Structures are given as C-alpha cells and as structure tokens.
UniProtKB/TrEMBL annotation:
InterPro entries: Nucleoplasmin (IPR004301), Nucleoplasmin_core_dom (IPR024057), Nucleoplasmin_core_dom_sf (IPR036824). Residues 8-106 form the Nucleoplasmin core domain. The keyword Nucleus applies. This is Nucleoplasmin core domain-containing protein. SUPFAM superfamilies: Nucleoplasmin-like core domain (SSF69203). One of its GO terms (biological process) is chromatin remodeling. GO terms for molecular function: chromatin binding; histone binding; RNA binding. GO terms for cellular component: cytoplasm; nucleolus; nucleoplasm. It is found in: Nucleus. It comes from Callipepla squamata (Scaled quail). Belongs to the nucleoplasmin family.
Length: 140
C-alpha cells in the first residue's frame, strides 16, 4: 500500500489537457483523488470550467464537469478527495486558466502479502467486566 501526494498539474490556454495514467502491466489497484482545483496567478476574471474524462462501470468514456471557477466569486474549490480510477483526463473546457489541480494517488499492491496478513490478524482485547462502584461508609 502506497500513498503519494501529487504535486498537481496546471491547465492553461496552451495546455488544456492533462492525462493521468498508470502502466498497463501494473496489476496494482490505483485510486486518484482530486482534492483542490484553484485559479492561480495570472487568471482572468472569466469562467474556467474543468472537466474530468474517465470511464464508467460499463467501461464507456464519460465527461463530467467538476469545477466552474471565476476569480471574482469562486477562485478555489475543495473536492474533498473526489476519487477516480485511472486513466483519467482533466480538461479546461472553458476559460484560459491557469487552473491548478492537486490531490493524491493511492496504490494497493495485490501481491503484498503483509496486507493480507494484516486483515486476518485481528486481535480481540478482553474487556474487563463492569463492576459497580463501592459505597464508602462514613464514620460517625
């Protein structure tokens, strides 16, 4: 199991797309989580629409808008670790940016024997029985 913080990517008028993919021969499970989409220095006060192009459960390509940013009203959007399965493409569908995307990449190695052992090694702690409190006797 590996967790990598992505330095992110930047979408601009000259670089409108960024594709995140993994090696096809890699049999690990990969999850890409998008945390933040924000306008950066040099952005104009215009609508900047960011789309995600990926595949659905039927392996059909789908395009979903995930952010509509404008400098004067919403320059930043937190996506709360929006999870995606690679390969995935981020596209600046409208506006000239620059728009910065950041998140993390999780890799679950299927051949990692220690991961499987950890699941089966659940130890149960014994819980002490609840005993009623003793009343103190006062001397008179």
């Amino acid at each position: 199991f590996s967790l990598l913080l992505l330095p992110g990517c930047e979408l601009t008028a000259s670089t409108k797309c960024y594709t995140f993919k993994v090696d096809e021969d890699d049999d690990s499970d990969h999850t890409l989580a998008l945390s933040v989409v924000c306008l950066t220095d040099g952005a104009k006060d215009e609508c900047n629409v960011v789309e995600v192009i990926g595949r659905n459960h039927k392996n059909q390509e789908i395009t979903v808008p995930v952010a509509n940013l404008k400098l004067s009203c919403q320059p930043l959007l937190s996506l709360n670790n929006f999870k995606l399965q690679p390969p995935v493409t981020f596209r600046l569908a409208a506006g000239s940016g620059p728009v910065h995307l950041a998140g993390w990449h999780q890799i679950l190695h299927r051949d990692d024997a220690s991961f499987e052992e950890d699941d089966n090694d659940v130890s149960e702690e014994e819980i002490a029985p609840i005993v009623p409190a003793k009343k103190e006797r006062r001397k008179q």
